[in-house]
Task: inverse folding
């Protein structure tokens, strides 16, 4: 399921401006995200209403709406995730379950950081930058690994990504349609091949064009489809407004 | 046109990295200084690289042009021919490809002295010879009352480059001497590069060495020491030969009489001769081989031991087939020569002689004392010498010679 990231940004802006219903809507829409992030950190299945961790995460997310700094160049969801992580760490430490659950997943610096108040903005800022950089790097590594499954390397993309803006727009449009079309995307993942005939019918782009931009379309479709995992990359492409 | 490319680094290679730009382009750019980590946002300015290449290119082409220029200059200024001049001062000049004097050296004390007075470097060879002769007259190396001999040799530097034409050099000398009014025996010889090398090894001028070599062939014993010390004119007297006779092979030689002498020989000095009286036409068969190269002494022969003016056909002309003499109005083969002796010519006189129709319109001379042939259009030609007294000289038109005394 593709999360409508653009929608989230709209809601976020409204919520930050003080629109109560927008905030409600944003929180509701992001519940699956919160669940996934929290479950990932706790490494177990969590259920709303039973697990405190989810409540802590939910509150942290709510806090993130207010505290989000756009000029940090960190996407909102990534920011929220970092805040959730930090709050959960605090909570788990209190619950004396840090060592059991968090060993290895959090570094000592974070623990030290948590000892102090994260409100101290400079330290928080540094932490945020460092964590964001680390996450971004991780994300790219994952993305590269996923591309490798389809036999695509970044060097291939340098070669076959169209230089001309209009040509690129066409292929980006195709890749969005592919990412949004569940059946076609599923076919891509299953066969590892681009369903060129169907895409050509769907978008009206000539199959030769699709054939030439095959790797680029696949790479971009994967990115759009997994936008929630590749928060930084998606956000970066969207930031310019040209990725649309 | 600076284009900045910004993007997130997605892959780092040894010297470059691949970035993902906000407009979804994947680009490979050189690794920024200090390296980059994946996920980092980097900017790359496209300008630096082209500028670097451009300046390199410009520098390289400048160097190339400079190098080519220097090379060309060196090539131009390379000595390709040598002209040696033996008056009594012996001088040798090296000529570059433009026939400009690029080196000059005196081969004896007088030669050095002469060169120190006449700046010849950088002058065209004709001009250099002209000024050297002028100076030689002024310095009294050449005197009207003496038996002057001017021996000139032209040697190619390595035989591959064209040396100046002996005929041109001869004309220059004749013209120069005529205007200076100094009588002299003029010999212009061409020499092989090897001759010149031998000569300079012995410290002789090429001309003098040539005398030695040719003299030996003819059974004359002319020692090298003699050649080094003696004037050529005194050598001539001593051995009783003329240089022309010794060398006379494939060069040009002739006698330039003093204008006064011509004047003195006239029965009525200062009188203007009847134009018709001075019109003489004569044809003689062309010289065939050495035997036929006889002196055609003019009636107005001047000083003793004044050798007669004679033109020895240059080597390449000799190769051309000669033919029998044709009638007076007959067409002449280019290779043949006809000498026309003209007597009693004075300022304003006219000479005329047969000229084959439609050939060799080119003017061969324009200096004083040369009967000209450039204006003949039809069967008969004529030339008016306006306001000049005629000295010995010749003109060559269609391979014939006009001799005026």
Result:
């Amino acid at each position: 399921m593709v999360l409508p990231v653009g929608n989230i940004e709209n809601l976020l802006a409204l919520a930050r401006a003080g629109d109560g219903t927008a905030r409600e809507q944003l929180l509701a829409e992001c519940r699956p995200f919160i669940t996934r992030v929290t479950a990932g950190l706790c490494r177990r299945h969590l259920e709303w209403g039973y697990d405190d961790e989810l409540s802590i995460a939910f509150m942290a997310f709510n806090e993130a709406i207010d505290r989000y700094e756009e000029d940090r160049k960190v996407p909102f969801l990534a920011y929220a995730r970092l805040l959730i992580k930090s709050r959960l760490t605090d909570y788990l430490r209190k619950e004396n379950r840090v060592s059991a659950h968090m060993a290895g997943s959090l570094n000592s610096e974070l623990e030290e950081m948590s000892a102090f108040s994260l409100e101290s903005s400079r330290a928080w800022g540094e932490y945020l930058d460092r964590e964001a950089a680390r996450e971004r790097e991780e994300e790219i590594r994952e993305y590269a690994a996923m591309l490798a499954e389809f036999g695509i390397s970044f060097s291939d993309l340098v070669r076959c990504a169209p230089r001309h803006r209009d040509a690129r727009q066409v292929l980006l449009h195709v890749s969005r349609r592919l990412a949004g079309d569940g059946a076609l995307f599923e076919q891509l993942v299953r066969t590892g091949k681009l369903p060129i005939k169907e895409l050509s019918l769907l978008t009206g782009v000539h199959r030769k064009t699709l054939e030439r931009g095959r790797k680029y379309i696949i790479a971009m479709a994967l990115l759009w489809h997994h936008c929630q995992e590749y928060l930084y990359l998606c956000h970066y492409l969207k930031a310019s407004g040209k990725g649309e | 046109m600076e284009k900045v490319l910004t993007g997130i680094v997605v892959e780092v290679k040894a010297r470059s990295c691949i970035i993902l730009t906000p407009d979804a382009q994947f680009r490979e750019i050189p690794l920024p200084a200090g390296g980059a980590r994946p996920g980092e946002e980097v900017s790359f300015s496209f300008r630096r690289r082209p500028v670097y290449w451009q300046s390199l290119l410009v520098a390289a082409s400048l160097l190339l042009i400079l190098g080519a220029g220097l090379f060309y200059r060196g090539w131009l200024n390379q000595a390709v021919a040598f002209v040696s001049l033996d008056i009594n001062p012996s001088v040798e000049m090296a000529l570059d490809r433009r026939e400009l004097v690029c080196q000059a050296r005196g081969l004896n004390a007088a030669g050095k002295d002469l060169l120190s007075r006449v700046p010849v470097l950088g002058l065209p060879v004709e001009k250099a010879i002209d000024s050297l002769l002028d100076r030689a007259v002024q310095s009294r190396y050449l005197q009207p009352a003496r038996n002057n001999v001017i021996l000139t040799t032209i040697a190619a530097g390595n035989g591959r480059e064209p040396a100046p034409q002996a005929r041109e050099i001869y004309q220059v000398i004749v013209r120069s001497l005529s205007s200076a009014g100094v009588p002299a025996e003029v010999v212009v010889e061409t020499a092989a590069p090897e001759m010149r090398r031998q000569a300079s090894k012995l410290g002789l001028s090429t001309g003098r060495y040539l005398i030695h070599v040719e003299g030996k062939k003819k059974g004359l014993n002319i020692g090298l020491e003699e050649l080094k010390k003696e004037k050529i004119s005194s050598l001539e007297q001593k051995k009783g030969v003329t240089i022309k006779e010794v060398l006379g092979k494939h060069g040009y030689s002739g006698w330039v009489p003093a204008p006064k002498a011509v004047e003195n020989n006239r029965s009525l000095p200062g009188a203007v001769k009847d134009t018709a009286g001075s019109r003489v036409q004569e044809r003689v068969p062309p010289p065939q081989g050495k035997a036929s190269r006889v002196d055609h002494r003019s009636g107005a022969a001047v000083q003793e031991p004044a050798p007669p003016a004679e033109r020895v056909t240059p080597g390449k002309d000799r190769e051309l087939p000669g033919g029998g003499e044709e009638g007076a109005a007959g067409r002449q083969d280019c290779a043949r020569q006809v000498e026309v002796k003209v007597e009693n010519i004075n300022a304003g006189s006219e000479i005329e002689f047969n000229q084959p129709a439609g050939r060799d319109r080119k003017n061969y001379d324009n200096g004083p004392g040369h009967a000209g042939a450039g204006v003949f259009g039809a069967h008969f030609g004529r030339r008016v010498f306006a306001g000049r007294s005629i000295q010995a000289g010749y003109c060559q038109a269609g391979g014939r010679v006009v001799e005026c005394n």
Remarks:
- The two ends of chain A are 18 Å apart (CA to CA).
- Residues 121-149 of chain A form the longest helix (29 residues).
- The mean pLDDT of chain A is 79.
- Chain A touches chain B through 29 residues (CB under 8 Å).
